Amino acid sequence: MKKSIAILAMIIVLPALAQAIDIFGGVQGGLRTVNDSQIKSVYGQGMCLFPYLAVNPWRGMIAGAGYELGYSKSGHIGIYQEDTTLKVSGLEVFAGYQYPVGFMTPYALVGLGSFSYKQTVASPAAQKVDTSAMTFFVALGAKASPLKGLPGLFFNLEVKYVPLSVKPYDESVDLGGIRLTLGAGYSLSF
Amino acid sequence: MTYDLTDVALSPDNKYAFISNFKGQELYRVDLSDPKNPALAGKLSITESRLCDIAISPDGNYGVVVNNNPSAQVIFFDPYSFSGYSVYTLKTSGAAVAGVDLAANGTIILTDLWGAKIHFGRVNDSLNGLVSETSLPTSANPVNVAISPDGTTALVANWYSNINVFQITGAGTVVPGATPVLANAFPDSIDFSPDGKIVYVYSSNYGPDLLSWYRVNSPGNVTAGAVPAASLLTCSTIPVFGVEILAVAPNGLYAITHGSDSCLKKNVQLINLATFGTQIIPTNNLLPTGVAAFWGAVLAPESLALASMENSYIFYKEYINRLTWQANTKNTFAVTSYRIYRKPWGASNSAYELLADVGPWTFSYDDRGLGKNDQYTYGVASVDEKGRESQKAVVND
Known about the structure:
- Chain A is mainly beta.
- Chain A has helices spanning about 1-20, 35-40; strands spanning about 20-30, 45-60, 60-75, 80-100, 105-120, 130-145, 155-160, 165, 175, 175-190.
- The longest helix of chain B has 4 residues, at about 260-265.
- The N and C termini of chain B lie far apart (about 45 Å).
- Chains A and B meet through helix 2 of A and strand 26 and strand 27 of B.
Protein backbone atom coordinates (compact mmCIF):
# COMPACT_ATOMS: atom_id res chain seq x y z
CA MET A 1 0.00 0.00 0.00
CA LYS A 2 2.73 2.49 0.98
CA LYS A 3 4.66 1.61 -2.14
CA SER A 4 1.63 2.20 -4.33
CA ILE A 5 0.96 5.55 -2.73
CA ALA A 6 4.56 6.56 -3.20
CA ILE A 7 4.46 5.67 -6.90
CA LEU A 8 1.26 7.61 -7.39
CA ALA A 9 2.74 10.55 -5.51
CA MET A 10 5.71 10.57 -7.87
CA ILE A 11 3.36 10.48 -10.86
CA ILE A 12 1.62 13.52 -9.48
CA VAL A 13 4.55 15.50 -8.22
CA LEU A 14 7.22 15.00 -10.82
CA PRO A 15 5.31 16.51 -13.78
CA ALA A 16 4.20 19.31 -11.52
CA LEU A 17 7.78 20.33 -11.04
CA ALA A 18 8.06 20.95 -14.74
CA GLN A 19 4.93 22.99 -15.46
CA ALA A 20 1.85 24.64 -13.98
CA ILE A 21 -0.77 22.36 -12.56
CA ASP A 22 -4.41 22.41 -11.51
CA ILE A 23 -5.17 21.33 -8.00
CA PHE A 24 -8.74 20.48 -7.23
CA GLY A 25 -10.63 18.98 -4.38
CA GLY A 26 -14.15 18.31 -3.36
CA VAL A 27 -16.62 16.07 -1.73
CA GLN A 28 -18.82 13.48 -3.32
CA GLY A 29 -21.74 11.77 -1.69
CA GLY A 30 -24.39 9.36 -2.71
CA LEU A 31 -25.56 5.80 -2.78
CA ARG A 32 -23.37 2.83 -2.01
CA THR A 33 -24.59 -0.60 -2.96
CA VAL A 34 -23.30 -3.92 -1.59
CA ASN A 35 -22.88 -7.02 -3.68
CA ASP A 36 -23.21 -9.67 -0.98
CA SER A 37 -26.78 -10.79 -0.56
CA GLN A 38 -26.38 -11.48 3.17
CA ILE A 39 -24.81 -8.08 3.79
CA LYS A 40 -27.62 -6.55 1.79
CA SER A 41 -30.22 -8.46 3.76
CA VAL A 42 -28.84 -7.67 7.22
CA TYR A 43 -27.38 -4.19 6.78
CA GLY A 44 -28.90 -2.97 3.53
CA GLN A 45 -27.54 -0.50 1.01
CA GLY A 46 -25.97 2.62 2.36
CA MET A 47 -24.59 6.04 1.76
CA CYS A 48 -21.05 7.14 1.26
CA LEU A 49 -19.09 10.33 1.47
CA PHE A 50 -15.83 10.82 -0.32
CA PRO A 51 -13.65 13.88 0.30
CA TYR A 52 -10.68 13.97 -1.96
CA LEU A 53 -7.83 16.06 -3.27
CA ALA A 54 -6.39 15.68 -6.78
CA VAL A 55 -4.07 17.30 -9.28
CA ASN A 56 -4.11 17.76 -13.02
CA PRO A 57 -0.37 17.91 -13.60
CA TRP A 58 -0.15 17.41 -17.30
CA ARG A 59 -2.67 17.52 -20.07
CA GLY A 60 -5.69 15.39 -19.09
CA MET A 61 -3.92 13.30 -16.53
CA ILE A 62 -5.33 13.42 -13.04
CA ALA A 63 -4.27 11.79 -9.81
CA GLY A 64 -5.37 12.10 -6.27
CA ALA A 65 -6.32 10.57 -2.98
CA GLY A 66 -9.45 10.47 -0.89
CA TYR A 67 -11.14 8.82 2.00
CA GLU A 68 -14.44 6.99 1.69
CA LEU A 69 -16.61 6.90 4.72
CA GLY A 70 -20.23 6.81 5.58
CA TYR A 71 -21.16 3.16 5.33
CA SER A 72 -22.11 2.44 8.94
CA LYS A 73 -25.16 0.29 9.29
CA SER A 74 -27.02 -1.56 12.03
CA GLY A 75 -29.21 -4.57 11.83
CA HIS A 76 -30.17 -7.90 13.33
CA ILE A 77 -28.30 -10.99 12.39
CA GLY A 78 -28.55 -14.77 12.54
CA ILE A 79 -30.91 -17.21 14.17
CA TYR A 80 -31.25 -15.11 17.29
CA GLN A 81 -31.57 -11.79 15.44
CA GLU A 82 -28.83 -10.25 17.56
CA ASP A 83 -27.87 -6.60 17.26
CA THR A 84 -25.04 -5.99 14.86
CA THR A 85 -23.21 -3.14 13.17
CA LEU A 86 -20.98 -2.99 10.14
CA LYS A 87 -18.69 -0.11 9.24
CA VAL A 88 -16.67 0.07 6.04
CA SER A 89 -14.29 2.88 5.13
CA GLY A 90 -11.44 3.18 2.70
CA LEU A 91 -8.35 5.20 1.95
CA GLU A 92 -8.02 5.49 -1.81
CA VAL A 93 -5.48 6.72 -4.30
CA PHE A 94 -6.37 7.06 -7.92
CA ALA A 95 -5.15 8.16 -11.31
CA GLY A 96 -6.99 8.78 -14.53
CA TYR A 97 -7.64 10.90 -17.51
CA GLN A 98 -10.11 13.63 -18.28
CA TYR A 99 -11.02 15.11 -21.62
CA PRO A 100 -13.23 18.19 -22.14
CA VAL A 101 -16.20 17.69 -24.43
CA GLY A 102 -18.26 20.87 -24.76
CA PHE A 103 -19.21 22.15 -21.32
CA MET A 104 -18.65 18.72 -19.79
CA THR A 105 -15.42 17.04 -18.84
CA PRO A 106 -15.78 13.27 -18.73
CA TYR A 107 -13.13 11.36 -16.90
CA ALA A 108 -12.11 7.81 -16.09
CA LEU A 109 -10.20 6.66 -13.01
CA VAL A 110 -8.50 3.57 -11.71
CA GLY A 111 -7.36 3.35 -8.17
CA LEU A 112 -6.19 1.35 -5.26
CA GLY A 113 -7.98 1.34 -1.96
CA SER A 114 -7.32 0.03 1.48
CA PHE A 115 -10.71 -0.70 2.97
CA SER A 116 -11.25 -1.24 6.67
CA TYR A 117 -14.26 -3.14 7.82
CA LYS A 118 -15.49 -3.74 11.32
CA GLN A 119 -18.41 -5.87 12.37
CA THR A 120 -19.82 -6.05 15.88
CA VAL A 121 -22.39 -8.57 17.07
CA ALA A 122 -24.01 -8.55 20.49
CA SER A 123 -23.54 -12.26 20.97
CA PRO A 124 -21.60 -14.52 23.30
CA ALA A 125 -20.45 -16.35 20.19
CA ALA A 126 -19.20 -13.25 18.39
CA GLN A 127 -15.71 -13.21 16.94
CA LYS A 128 -13.62 -10.17 16.19
CA VAL A 129 -13.99 -8.78 12.70
CA ASP A 130 -11.89 -5.64 12.51
CA THR A 131 -9.41 -5.71 9.69
CA SER A 132 -8.68 -4.33 6.24
CA ALA A 133 -8.19 -5.44 2.66
CA MET A 134 -6.82 -3.87 -0.52
CA THR A 135 -8.47 -3.75 -3.89
CA PHE A 136 -8.42 -1.95 -7.23
CA PHE A 137 -11.38 -0.01 -8.41
CA VAL A 138 -12.62 1.84 -11.49
CA ALA A 139 -14.73 4.95 -11.86
CA LEU A 140 -16.36 6.92 -14.65
CA GLY A 141 -17.66 10.39 -14.28
CA ALA A 142 -18.15 13.81 -15.71
CA LYS A 143 -17.75 17.26 -14.30
CA ALA A 144 -18.92 20.65 -15.34
CA SER A 145 -18.37 24.25 -14.30
CA PRO A 146 -21.72 25.97 -14.87
CA LEU A 147 -20.93 29.30 -13.21
CA LYS A 148 -18.91 31.60 -15.48
CA GLY A 149 -18.25 34.03 -12.67
CA LEU A 150 -16.75 31.27 -10.62
CA PRO A 151 -14.89 29.11 -13.10
CA GLY A 152 -13.08 27.09 -10.44
CA LEU A 153 -16.30 25.68 -9.05
CA PHE A 154 -17.40 22.45 -10.58
CA PHE A 155 -19.98 19.78 -10.03
CA ASN A 156 -19.58 16.18 -10.94
CA LEU A 157 -21.42 12.90 -11.23
CA GLU A 158 -19.51 9.68 -10.78
CA VAL A 159 -20.10 5.95 -10.89
CA LYS A 160 -17.48 3.85 -9.16
CA TYR A 161 -17.24 0.10 -8.90
CA VAL A 162 -15.21 -1.42 -6.08
CA PRO A 163 -14.77 -5.18 -5.99
CA LEU A 164 -13.84 -6.17 -2.46
CA SER A 165 -13.83 -9.83 -1.58
CA VAL A 166 -12.68 -10.56 1.97
CA LYS A 167 -12.25 -13.69 4.01
CA PRO A 168 -11.32 -12.96 7.61
CA TYR A 169 -12.45 -16.44 8.67
CA ASP A 170 -13.87 -19.34 6.70
CA GLU A 171 -16.47 -17.43 4.75
CA SER A 172 -15.78 -15.31 1.65
CA VAL A 173 -17.79 -12.11 1.66
CA ASP A 174 -18.12 -9.60 -1.18
CA LEU A 175 -18.07 -6.19 0.44
CA GLY A 176 -17.79 -4.57 -2.99
CA GLY A 177 -20.42 -2.56 -4.78
CA ILE A 178 -21.25 0.50 -6.81
CA ARG A 179 -21.01 4.07 -5.61
CA LEU A 180 -23.27 6.51 -7.42
CA THR A 181 -22.30 9.93 -6.22
CA LEU A 182 -22.81 13.60 -6.87
CA GLY A 183 -20.16 16.02 -5.86
CA ALA A 184 -18.94 19.56 -5.81
CA GLY A 185 -15.42 20.84 -5.83
CA TYR A 186 -13.10 23.66 -6.57
CA SER A 187 -10.15 23.82 -8.87
CA LEU A 188 -7.17 26.11 -8.59
CA SER A 189 -4.60 26.68 -11.31
CA PHE A 190 -0.95 27.33 -10.46
CA MET B 1 -35.86 -71.04 42.25
CA THR B 2 -35.98 -70.42 45.96
CA TYR B 3 -37.33 -67.07 46.88
CA ASP B 4 -36.20 -65.60 50.14
CA LEU B 5 -36.24 -61.91 49.51
CA THR B 6 -34.30 -59.97 52.07
CA ASP B 7 -33.24 -56.40 51.44
CA VAL B 8 -34.48 -53.62 49.21
CA ALA B 9 -32.78 -50.41 48.17
CA LEU B 10 -33.88 -47.61 45.88
CA SER B 11 -31.99 -45.73 43.24
CA PRO B 12 -31.59 -42.05 44.21
CA ASP B 13 -34.16 -41.06 41.62
CA ASN B 14 -36.54 -43.74 42.97
CA LYS B 15 -36.99 -45.09 39.48
CA TYR B 16 -35.76 -48.54 40.48
CA ALA B 17 -35.89 -50.79 43.49
CA PHE B 18 -33.23 -53.46 43.92
CA ILE B 19 -34.10 -56.60 45.85
CA SER B 20 -31.76 -59.30 47.06
CA ASN B 21 -32.70 -62.96 47.13
CA PHE B 22 -30.93 -64.51 50.12
CA LYS B 23 -31.14 -68.10 48.98
CA GLY B 24 -31.91 -67.70 45.31
CA GLN B 25 -28.59 -66.17 44.23
CA GLU B 26 -30.35 -63.43 42.34
CA LEU B 27 -30.59 -59.68 42.48
CA TYR B 28 -33.74 -58.14 41.02
CA ARG B 29 -34.48 -54.72 39.64
CA VAL B 30 -38.02 -53.40 39.71
CA ASP B 31 -39.12 -50.37 37.69
CA LEU B 32 -41.16 -48.02 39.88
CA SER B 33 -41.87 -45.40 37.21
CA ASP B 34 -45.51 -46.30 37.60
CA PRO B 35 -45.70 -46.94 41.34
CA LYS B 36 -49.06 -48.64 41.10
CA ASN B 37 -47.73 -51.09 38.57
CA PRO B 38 -44.17 -51.99 39.50
CA ALA B 39 -42.54 -54.14 36.87
CA LEU B 40 -39.56 -56.45 36.96
CA ALA B 41 -36.84 -54.73 34.96
CA GLY B 42 -34.05 -57.27 35.01
CA LYS B 43 -32.26 -59.66 37.28
CA LEU B 44 -28.69 -60.68 37.87
CA SER B 45 -27.84 -64.28 38.60
CA ILE B 46 -25.01 -64.18 41.11
CA THR B 47 -22.86 -67.11 42.00
CA GLU B 48 -22.75 -66.18 45.65
CA SER B 49 -25.73 -67.05 47.82
CA ARG B 50 -26.91 -65.38 51.03
CA LEU B 51 -27.27 -62.01 49.35
CA CYS B 52 -28.39 -59.52 51.94
CA ASP B 53 -27.61 -55.83 52.28
CA ILE B 54 -27.79 -53.62 49.21
CA ALA B 55 -26.55 -50.05 48.88
CA ILE B 56 -26.80 -47.70 45.92
CA SER B 57 -24.36 -44.81 45.69
CA PRO B 58 -25.89 -41.36 46.24
CA ASP B 59 -25.12 -40.45 42.63
CA GLY B 60 -26.71 -43.67 41.40
CA ASN B 61 -23.62 -44.66 39.44
CA TYR B 62 -23.02 -47.97 41.17
CA GLY B 63 -24.54 -50.38 43.59
CA VAL B 64 -23.14 -52.92 46.03
CA VAL B 65 -24.69 -56.08 47.38
CA VAL B 66 -23.01 -58.21 50.00
CA ASN B 67 -23.42 -61.79 51.13
CA ASN B 68 -22.66 -62.86 54.64
CA ASN B 69 -20.85 -66.01 53.64
CA PRO B 70 -17.33 -65.88 55.03
CA SER B 71 -16.04 -65.36 51.50
CA ALA B 72 -14.84 -61.77 51.85
CA GLN B 73 -16.58 -61.01 48.60
CA VAL B 74 -18.39 -57.82 47.67
CA ILE B 75 -20.48 -57.54 44.52
CA PHE B 76 -20.56 -54.34 42.49
CA PHE B 77 -23.15 -53.62 39.80
CA ASP B 78 -24.36 -50.80 37.58
CA PRO B 79 -27.90 -49.92 38.66
CA TYR B 80 -28.87 -48.52 35.28
CA SER B 81 -27.33 -50.86 32.77
CA PHE B 82 -27.91 -53.76 35.18
CA SER B 83 -26.18 -56.06 32.75
CA GLY B 84 -23.52 -57.71 34.86
CA TYR B 85 -21.56 -57.52 38.04
CA SER B 86 -18.02 -57.57 39.42
CA VAL B 87 -16.80 -59.41 42.46
CA TYR B 88 -14.24 -57.74 44.69
CA THR B 89 -12.48 -59.84 47.31
CA LEU B 90 -11.48 -58.09 50.51
CA LYS B 91 -7.93 -58.40 51.76
CA THR B 92 -9.23 -59.94 54.97
CA SER B 93 -9.85 -63.54 54.05
CA GLY B 94 -12.90 -65.10 55.61
CA ALA B 95 -14.62 -61.81 56.19
CA ALA B 96 -18.38 -62.27 56.42
CA VAL B 97 -19.79 -59.00 55.20
CA ALA B 98 -23.26 -58.32 56.51
CA GLY B 99 -23.81 -54.62 56.00
CA VAL B 100 -22.68 -52.01 53.53
CA ASP B 101 -23.22 -48.30 52.98
CA LEU B 102 -21.83 -45.76 50.56
CA ALA B 103 -21.03 -42.07 50.85
CA ALA B 104 -21.17 -39.47 48.13
CA ASN B 105 -17.41 -38.98 48.25
CA GLY B 106 -16.82 -42.62 47.26
CA THR B 107 -16.30 -44.02 50.74
CA ILE B 108 -17.57 -47.55 51.25
CA ILE B 109 -17.94 -49.13 54.68
CA LEU B 110 -18.57 -52.84 55.13
CA THR B 111 -19.31 -54.63 58.39
CA ASP B 112 -17.46 -57.88 59.01
CA LEU B 113 -19.93 -59.76 61.14
CA TRP B 114 -17.70 -62.46 62.60
CA GLY B 115 -14.43 -60.58 62.32
CA ALA B 116 -15.75 -57.73 64.53
CA LYS B 117 -14.39 -55.12 62.18
CA ILE B 118 -15.38 -52.67 59.59
CA HIS B 119 -13.54 -52.67 56.29
CA PHE B 120 -13.52 -49.45 54.35
CA GLY B 121 -11.88 -47.60 51.51
CA ARG B 122 -12.68 -45.58 48.46
CA VAL B 123 -14.48 -47.11 45.54
CA ASN B 124 -12.13 -47.18 42.57
CA ASP B 125 -12.69 -45.27 39.36
CA SER B 126 -13.89 -48.40 37.60
CA LEU B 127 -16.60 -48.70 40.27
CA ASN B 128 -15.82 -52.33 40.92
CA GLY B 129 -13.50 -52.45 43.92
CA LEU B 130 -11.82 -50.65 46.77
CA VAL B 131 -8.79 -48.42 46.88
CA SER B 132 -6.78 -48.12 50.11
CA GLU B 133 -8.74 -50.85 51.84
CA THR B 134 -8.36 -50.54 55.61
CA SER B 135 -9.99 -52.04 58.71
CA LEU B 136 -10.96 -50.84 62.17
CA PRO B 137 -12.23 -52.92 65.07
CA THR B 138 -15.77 -52.70 66.40
CA SER B 139 -17.02 -53.36 69.91
CA ALA B 140 -18.77 -56.56 68.91
CA ASN B 141 -20.15 -58.27 65.84
CA PRO B 142 -21.33 -55.54 63.46
CA VAL B 143 -24.53 -56.38 61.60
CA ASN B 144 -25.21 -53.13 59.84
CA VAL B 145 -23.87 -49.71 58.97
CA ALA B 146 -25.44 -46.41 57.97
CA ILE B 147 -23.73 -43.26 56.68
CA SER B 148 -25.21 -39.82 57.28
CA PRO B 149 -26.59 -37.90 54.27
CA ASP B 150 -23.63 -35.51 54.36
CA GLY B 151 -21.24 -38.47 54.31
CA THR B 152 -19.31 -37.51 57.46
CA THR B 153 -20.71 -39.80 60.16
CA ALA B 154 -21.22 -43.56 60.17
CA LEU B 155 -22.95 -45.66 62.78
CA VAL B 156 -22.38 -49.38 63.09
CA ALA B 157 -24.87 -51.62 64.88
CA ASN B 158 -23.18 -54.39 66.87
CA TRP B 159 -25.26 -57.48 67.47
CA TYR B 160 -26.03 -58.15 71.14
CA SER B 161 -24.04 -55.08 72.02
CA ASN B 162 -23.97 -51.42 71.18
CA ILE B 163 -23.21 -48.93 68.48
CA ASN B 164 -19.89 -47.69 67.22
CA VAL B 165 -19.60 -44.22 65.82
CA PHE B 166 -17.09 -43.37 63.09
CA GLN B 167 -16.13 -40.19 61.35
CA ILE B 168 -15.48 -40.11 57.63
CA THR B 169 -12.73 -37.55 57.19
CA GLY B 170 -12.16 -37.96 53.47
CA ALA B 171 -12.77 -40.23 50.54
CA GLY B 172 -12.09 -43.68 51.91
CA THR B 173 -10.76 -42.37 55.20
CA VAL B 174 -12.56 -43.38 58.40
CA VAL B 175 -11.56 -42.82 62.02
CA PRO B 176 -13.27 -43.83 65.26
CA GLY B 177 -15.84 -41.35 66.52
CA ALA B 178 -15.98 -39.76 69.95
CA THR B 179 -17.26 -42.70 72.01
CA PRO B 180 -19.30 -45.79 71.42
CA VAL B 181 -22.89 -45.01 72.21
CA LEU B 182 -24.74 -47.54 74.25
CA ALA B 183 -27.93 -48.62 72.63
CA ASN B 184 -30.70 -50.89 73.59
CA ALA B 185 -29.69 -54.46 73.29
CA PHE B 186 -29.41 -55.97 69.84
CA PRO B 187 -29.23 -52.89 67.62
CA ASP B 188 -30.02 -54.08 64.16
CA SER B 189 -30.75 -51.34 61.68
CA ILE B 190 -29.97 -47.65 61.51
CA ASP B 191 -31.27 -44.75 59.46
CA PHE B 192 -30.72 -41.01 59.49
CA SER B 193 -33.25 -38.22 59.29
CA PRO B 194 -33.13 -36.48 55.90
CA ASP B 195 -31.23 -33.54 57.39
CA GLY B 196 -28.77 -35.89 59.09
CA LYS B 197 -29.26 -34.35 62.52
CA ILE B 198 -31.06 -37.33 64.06
CA VAL B 199 -30.23 -41.00 63.70
CA TYR B 200 -32.74 -43.71 64.53
CA VAL B 201 -31.80 -47.19 65.68
CA TYR B 202 -34.01 -50.22 65.56
CA SER B 203 -33.29 -52.81 68.21
CA SER B 204 -34.73 -56.29 68.08
CA ASN B 205 -34.77 -56.88 71.72
CA TYR B 206 -35.91 -60.43 72.29
CA GLY B 207 -38.60 -58.62 74.14
CA PRO B 208 -40.53 -55.70 72.74
CA ASP B 209 -38.56 -54.25 69.83
CA LEU B 210 -37.45 -50.71 70.36
CA LEU B 211 -36.76 -47.59 68.37
CA SER B 212 -34.30 -45.19 69.91
CA TRP B 213 -32.83 -42.00 68.58
CA TYR B 214 -29.58 -40.10 68.80
CA ARG B 215 -28.51 -36.59 68.09
CA VAL B 216 -25.70 -36.05 65.60
CA ASN B 217 -23.77 -33.13 67.08
CA SER B 218 -20.96 -32.99 64.57
CA PRO B 219 -19.15 -35.43 62.30
CA GLY B 220 -18.41 -38.52 64.33
CA ASN B 221 -20.02 -37.09 67.47
CA VAL B 222 -23.33 -38.63 68.47
CA THR B 223 -25.16 -38.47 71.80
CA ALA B 224 -28.20 -40.36 73.00
CA GLY B 225 -31.66 -38.88 73.00
CA ALA B 226 -34.50 -40.18 75.14
CA VAL B 227 -34.13 -43.95 75.22
CA PRO B 228 -36.16 -45.83 74.24
CA ALA B 229 -38.25 -43.61 72.06
CA ALA B 230 -40.82 -46.19 71.14
CA SER B 231 -41.76 -49.72 71.94
CA LEU B 232 -42.61 -51.13 68.62
CA LEU B 233 -43.83 -54.64 69.13
CA THR B 234 -45.25 -56.69 71.90
CA CYS B 235 -42.98 -59.50 70.92
CA SER B 236 -39.58 -59.46 69.37
CA THR B 237 -38.18 -60.18 65.95
CA ILE B 238 -35.02 -62.00 65.09
CA PRO B 239 -32.26 -59.75 63.80
CA VAL B 240 -31.72 -59.89 60.08
CA PHE B 241 -28.06 -59.31 59.52
CA GLY B 242 -27.28 -56.45 57.23
CA VAL B 243 -30.81 -55.90 56.04
CA GLU B 244 -32.37 -52.49 56.38
CA ILE B 245 -35.39 -53.15 58.52
CA LEU B 246 -35.86 -49.48 59.35
CA ALA B 247 -36.42 -46.69 56.85
CA VAL B 248 -37.07 -43.03 57.61
CA ALA B 249 -39.38 -41.34 55.14
CA PRO B 250 -37.77 -38.61 53.04
CA ASN B 251 -39.95 -36.00 54.76
CA GLY B 252 -38.52 -37.07 58.12
CA LEU B 253 -41.96 -37.42 59.71
CA TYR B 254 -42.35 -41.16 59.65
CA ALA B 255 -40.34 -44.34 59.76
CA ILE B 256 -41.33 -47.80 58.67
CA THR B 257 -40.10 -51.09 60.01
CA HIS B 258 -40.24 -54.63 58.78
CA GLY B 259 -42.63 -57.36 59.82
CA SER B 260 -40.36 -60.33 59.83
CA ASP B 261 -40.69 -63.38 62.01
CA SER B 262 -43.62 -64.20 64.20
CA CYS B 263 -44.71 -60.78 65.33
CA LEU B 264 -46.06 -58.95 62.38
CA LYS B 265 -46.06 -61.57 59.69
CA LYS B 266 -47.76 -59.85 56.77
CA ASN B 267 -47.70 -56.46 58.42
CA VAL B 268 -45.25 -53.61 58.68
CA GLN B 269 -45.23 -50.88 61.26
CA LEU B 270 -45.44 -47.15 60.67
CA ILE B 271 -43.96 -44.90 63.33
CA ASN B 272 -44.82 -41.25 63.78
CA LEU B 273 -41.45 -39.72 64.58
CA ALA B 274 -43.01 -36.74 66.34
CA THR B 275 -45.12 -38.74 68.77
CA PHE B 276 -43.52 -42.18 68.38
CA GLY B 277 -46.98 -43.62 68.03
CA THR B 278 -47.23 -46.71 65.87
CA GLN B 279 -49.61 -48.06 63.33
CA ILE B 280 -49.79 -51.52 61.81
CA ILE B 281 -50.04 -51.62 58.02
CA PRO B 282 -50.94 -54.87 56.24
CA THR B 283 -49.01 -56.02 53.18
CA ASN B 284 -49.44 -58.88 50.76
CA ASN B 285 -46.02 -60.32 51.51
CA LEU B 286 -45.64 -63.30 53.79
CA LEU B 287 -42.74 -61.95 55.79
CA PRO B 288 -41.60 -58.50 54.72
CA THR B 289 -38.01 -57.99 55.78
CA GLY B 290 -36.08 -55.15 54.15
CA VAL B 291 -37.81 -51.82 53.86
CA ALA B 292 -37.09 -48.65 51.92
CA ALA B 293 -38.98 -45.39 51.90
CA PHE B 294 -40.29 -44.71 48.42
CA TRP B 295 -40.69 -41.06 47.68
CA GLY B 296 -41.89 -41.34 44.13
CA ALA B 297 -39.71 -41.45 41.09
CA VAL B 298 -38.08 -38.44 39.52
CA LEU B 299 -37.69 -39.35 35.90
CA ALA B 300 -35.60 -37.98 33.09
CA PRO B 301 -37.35 -35.94 30.41
CA GLU B 302 -38.61 -37.77 27.38
CA SER B 303 -37.96 -37.49 23.65
CA LEU B 304 -34.59 -35.79 24.04
CA ALA B 305 -33.38 -34.84 20.57
CA LEU B 306 -30.47 -32.91 19.15
CA ALA B 307 -30.31 -30.80 16.02
CA SER B 308 -26.99 -29.46 14.77
CA MET B 309 -27.35 -25.96 13.35
CA GLU B 310 -25.24 -23.27 11.76
CA ASN B 311 -25.76 -19.63 12.63
CA SER B 312 -24.31 -17.33 10.00
CA TYR B 313 -22.70 -14.08 11.06
CA ILE B 314 -21.74 -13.58 7.41
CA PHE B 315 -17.99 -13.45 8.01
CA TYR B 316 -18.04 -16.64 10.07
CA LYS B 317 -20.41 -19.26 11.34
CA GLU B 318 -21.39 -20.27 14.80
CA TYR B 319 -22.09 -23.96 15.33
CA ILE B 320 -24.95 -24.79 17.64
CA ASN B 321 -26.39 -27.96 19.08
CA ARG B 322 -30.06 -27.47 19.86
CA LEU B 323 -31.51 -29.84 22.43
CA THR B 324 -35.24 -30.36 22.74
CA TRP B 325 -37.14 -32.57 25.14
CA GLN B 326 -40.55 -33.17 26.62
CA ALA B 327 -41.74 -33.35 30.20
CA ASN B 328 -42.04 -36.80 31.69
CA THR B 329 -45.64 -37.01 32.78
CA LYS B 330 -44.90 -39.92 35.12
CA ASN B 331 -43.02 -37.80 37.62
CA THR B 332 -44.57 -37.99 41.06
CA PHE B 333 -43.72 -34.44 42.02
CA ALA B 334 -43.60 -31.27 40.01
CA VAL B 335 -40.42 -30.70 38.06
CA THR B 336 -38.85 -27.39 39.06
CA SER B 337 -35.99 -27.32 36.60
CA TYR B 338 -34.01 -29.21 34.01
CA ARG B 339 -30.25 -29.52 34.20
CA ILE B 340 -28.31 -29.74 30.97
CA TYR B 341 -24.95 -31.49 31.03
CA ARG B 342 -22.28 -32.03 28.39
CA LYS B 343 -19.22 -34.21 28.03
CA PRO B 344 -16.87 -34.93 25.13
CA TRP B 345 -17.78 -37.88 23.02
CA GLY B 346 -16.58 -41.12 24.56
CA ALA B 347 -15.58 -39.54 27.89
CA SER B 348 -16.61 -41.14 31.17
CA ASN B 349 -19.68 -39.92 33.01
CA SER B 350 -17.48 -38.10 35.48
CA ALA B 351 -16.58 -35.73 32.64
CA TYR B 352 -20.08 -34.29 32.50
CA GLU B 353 -20.14 -30.54 33.09
CA LEU B 354 -23.26 -28.61 33.97
CA LEU B 355 -24.13 -26.20 31.18
CA ALA B 356 -27.37 -24.76 32.43
CA ASP B 357 -30.25 -25.11 34.84
CA VAL B 358 -33.43 -24.02 33.08
CA GLY B 359 -36.99 -23.60 34.24
CA PRO B 360 -39.71 -26.24 34.21
CA TRP B 361 -41.42 -24.76 31.19
CA THR B 362 -38.31 -24.62 29.09
CA PHE B 363 -37.99 -27.54 26.75
CA SER B 364 -35.05 -26.56 24.60
CA TYR B 365 -31.50 -25.41 25.02
CA ASP B 366 -28.96 -24.17 22.52
CA ASP B 367 -25.33 -25.05 23.17
CA ARG B 368 -23.70 -22.19 21.32
CA GLY B 369 -20.29 -21.20 20.10
CA LEU B 370 -19.15 -24.70 19.24
CA GLY B 371 -16.30 -25.59 16.95
CA LYS B 372 -17.11 -27.14 13.62
CA ASN B 373 -15.70 -30.51 14.61
CA ASP B 374 -16.70 -30.58 18.28
CA GLN B 375 -18.55 -33.72 19.28
CA TYR B 376 -20.38 -33.99 22.54
CA THR B 377 -22.72 -36.20 24.48
CA TYR B 378 -25.51 -34.33 26.23
CA GLY B 379 -27.51 -35.33 29.27
CA VAL B 380 -30.67 -33.65 30.49
CA ALA B 381 -31.99 -34.41 33.98
CA SER B 382 -35.20 -33.43 35.72
CA VAL B 383 -35.05 -31.86 39.16
CA ASP B 384 -38.23 -32.15 41.20
CA GLU B 385 -39.63 -29.98 43.94
CA LYS B 386 -37.95 -32.22 46.51
CA GLY B 387 -34.62 -31.24 45.03
CA ARG B 388 -33.93 -34.67 43.63
CA GLU B 389 -32.31 -35.07 40.28
CA SER B 390 -33.23 -37.80 37.84
CA GLN B 391 -30.88 -39.84 35.78
CA LYS B 392 -29.93 -38.15 32.55
CA ALA B 393 -31.65 -38.63 29.27
CA VAL B 394 -28.71 -38.86 26.87
CA VAL B 395 -28.16 -37.88 23.26
CA ASN B 396 -25.06 -37.58 21.05
CA ASP B 397 -24.40 -35.04 18.36
